[in-house]
UniProtKB/TrEMBL annotation:
Membrane topology of this protein: Multi-pass membrane protein
Family affiliation: Belongs to the binding-protein-dependent transport system permease family.
Protein name, as recorded: Sugar ABC transporter permease
CDD domains tied to this protein: TM_PBP2
SUPFAM superfamilies: MetI-like
Any GO CC annotation of this UniProt entry: plasma membrane
Length: 321
């Protein structure tokens, strides 16, 4: 028995790769209709997400449009060195970090609070109405939201300044005041995405076993205690996953909204990596330098994602992988 067991175990180890391949092929044949439906998504990511990764090589070259990527001269880390030595580096790093941090601090917990509070509403019709109006802003484009902000905060006919005048205060050009830019950006991010992200938490809440609440009622627990000891702990895995994703994108601030709202008077607090890449790459046609800055931004986002994932697994035992 002792001599045959290792041979049997070794034989099983040798058969595992083949059996896994056969099992995978069997599952692919069984789910072929679903795989065909998923094929456009795969093609999209291959063409527009993984394919362009090859273009990052220009960050290490002195890219020339006429010579192409392959014909351009290699310069190594020269563009990265120039960027790190540039006086713009620390300003961009500080602005991107603070804007991403404030957005994470406010835009992450608000959907959780909103979902938990909405779950406690007993009026079904009122609950559906509030939920519908809350996620409508998510369907508005960045251009429309930015235009609304500019109109509302206009110093001449904006709604906010009209209200200030009505109570005897002076009108203020908010978008030209550096101290107001981050507040405007973060608050509009919360308003635009809170309702849509709350749907994720409402779905997690809906999967909680109702018998837990019934047992808590029998034990005399209040609604606040049920929220604290049942609802929040039950959706904690979802919260951790969303926190990892949000933290990973903290440095990935889209240039569109900032570009539409900022101006030379607010550059000192509003200029971030993405807007800098836009100016250097598209406006000044310095493609290699812009690619180096963009690659650095992506690496920072990747590091943040890995760190947050490790912290999440140690704190709650849940992570993206």
């Amino acid at each position: 028995m002792h001599t045959s067991q290792p041979e049997l175990t070794e034989g099983r180890k040798q058969r595992v790769p083949g059996s896994r391949l056969v099992s995978t092929l069997r599952h692919m044949k069984r789910d072929r209709q679903l795989l065909i439906l998923f094929l456009p998504c795969i093609i999209f990511f291959v063409l527009f997400r993984y394919g362009p990764i090859y273009g990052l090589v220009i960050a290490f070259k002195d890219y020339n449009v006429y010579q192409g990527i392959l014909g351009s001269e290699w310069v190594g880390f020269e563009h990265f060195r120039r960027f790190f030595e540039s006086p713009d580096f620390w300003l961009l790093f500080k602005n991107t970090f603070l804007l991403g941090l404030f957005t994470l601090m406010w835009a992450f917990p608000f959907p959780i609070i909103f979902a938990v509070m909405l779950n406690e509403v007993r009026g079904i019709q009122f609950k559906k109405t509030v939920q519908t109006f809350s996620y409508l802003p998510s369907f508005l484009s960045v251009v429309i939201v930015s235009s609304m902000i500019i109109d509302f905060l206009s110093p001449t006919h904006g709604l906010v300044n009209e209200l200030l005048k009505a109570v005897g205060l002076e009108s203020k050009y908010f978008l030209a005041a550096p101290e107001w830019f981050r507040t405007i950006y973060v608050s509009t991010e919360v308003w635009q995405h809170m309702g849509f992200e709350a749907i994720i938490y409402l779905a997690a809440i809906a999967s909680i076993d109702p018998t837990l609440y019934e047992a808590a009622k029998v034990d005399g627990a209040s609604r606040f205690q049920m929220m604290r000891y049942i609802t929040i702990p039950s959706i904690m895995p979802t919260i951790l996953i969303m926190f990892i994703i949000k933290s990973g994108s903290m440095f990935r601030i889209g240039y569109e909204k900032v570009l539409l709202l900022y101006n030379p008077m607010t550059y000192e607090v509003a200029d971030v990596f993405s807007t800098y890449v836009y100016r250097k790459g598209l406006l000044e046609t310095n493609y290699s330098y812009a690619a180096a800055v963009g690659l650095f931004e992506s690496l920072i986002a990747l590091v943040m994602l890995l760190i947050t994932n490790v912290i999440s697994k140690k704190a709650g035992g849940k992570g993206l992988w």
